[in-house]
């Protein structure tokens, strides 16, 4: 597949061109438009248990597979939140936060049941997905995507709400941002301690921070 990304970084749209009879796996709700002849099949990957594990990780129970006709096709994709998109060439493993995966070639799979994901439950609402296999993936962020390359042994700290993903060569732990008092009252919550080498993707906005700003402003019921 060939991917062209437009309108970065706020309201990004991915234009995906498929060869004849080529398939692409797409998260439900991400499709914006497509050319005539594209066919969609919806199923729970890995059966009921596979879909259930996806749902527990914050992903959709079902996955859509879009197939191009013999003469090829085009499908456009967008995330649910305003922000950026990026293409990743996977050859092995890459870790993405739950919700960042938008689409991928059929040679790529996502898994939330791997052991490392346990450290991210309750860590600022972040659940990490293992993306593995070989092929191209489209990932999305809330806000702009910021990249940082860590050298071997280099340490870096990122708020869990701003993590988009990182290479599997990076070591990581999720910890409080400080003491329990500063973690609760300081507004920073949990942070991810990363150790290089490898590539880190961050987002310039946080869903949790936005909800923390929005919810107190919502009208309250008079009942």
Write structural notes for this entry.
It is built from three helices and 17 strands. Strands 3, 5, 6, 8, 9, 10, 11, 12, 14 and 17 form a ten-stranded antiparallel sheet that branches. The chain has a four-stranded antiparallel sheet with strand order 1-2-7-4, with no helix packed on it. Strand 1 and strand 2 form a beta hairpin. The longest helix is centred in the N-terminal third of the chain and has 10 residues.
Defining traits:
mainly beta; 4-stranded antiparallel sheet; single chain; 223 residues; 3 helices; 17 strands
How far apart lie the N and C ends? 54 Å
> What shape does the CA trace take?
globular
Strands, count: 17
Low-confidence stretches: 121-125
Number of helices: 3
**How do the SSEs run, as a string of H and E?**
EEEEEHEEEEEEEEEEHEEH
| Computed structural class | mainly beta
* Portion in helices: 10-25%
Major beta sheet, specifics? 10 strands, antiparallel
Mean pLDDT: 85
Range of strand content = over 45%
Structural Rg? 18 Å
Summarize the structure.
The protein is mostly beta strands.
């Amino acid at each position: 597949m060939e991917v062209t990304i437009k309108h970065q970084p706020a309201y990004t749209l991915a234009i995906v061109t498929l060869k004849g009879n080529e398939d692409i796996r797409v998260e439900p709700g991400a499709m914006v438009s497509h050319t005539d002849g594209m066919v969609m099949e919806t199923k729970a990957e890995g059966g009921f248990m596979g879909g259930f594990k996806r749902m527990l990780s914050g992903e959709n129970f079902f996955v859509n597979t879009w197939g191009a006709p013999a003469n090829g096709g085009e499908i456009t994709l967008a995330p649910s939140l305003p922000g950026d998109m990026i293409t990743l060439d996977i050859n092995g493993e890459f870790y993405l936060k739950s919700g960042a995966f938008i689409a991928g070639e059929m040679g790529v799979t996502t898994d939330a049941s791997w052991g490392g994901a346990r450290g991210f439950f309750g860590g600022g609402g972040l659940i990490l997905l293992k993306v593995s296999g070989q092929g191209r993936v489209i990932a999305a962020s809330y806000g702009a995507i910021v990249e940082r390359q860590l050298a071997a042994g280099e340490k870096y700290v990122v708020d869990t709400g701003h993590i988009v993903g990182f290479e599997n060569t990076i070591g990581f732990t999720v910890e409080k941002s400080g003491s329990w008092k500063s973690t609760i009252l300081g507004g920073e919550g949990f942070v991810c301690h990363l150790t290089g080498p490898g590539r880190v993707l961050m987002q310039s906005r946080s869903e949790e921070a936005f909800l923390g700003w929005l919810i107190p402003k919502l009208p309250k019921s008079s009942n």
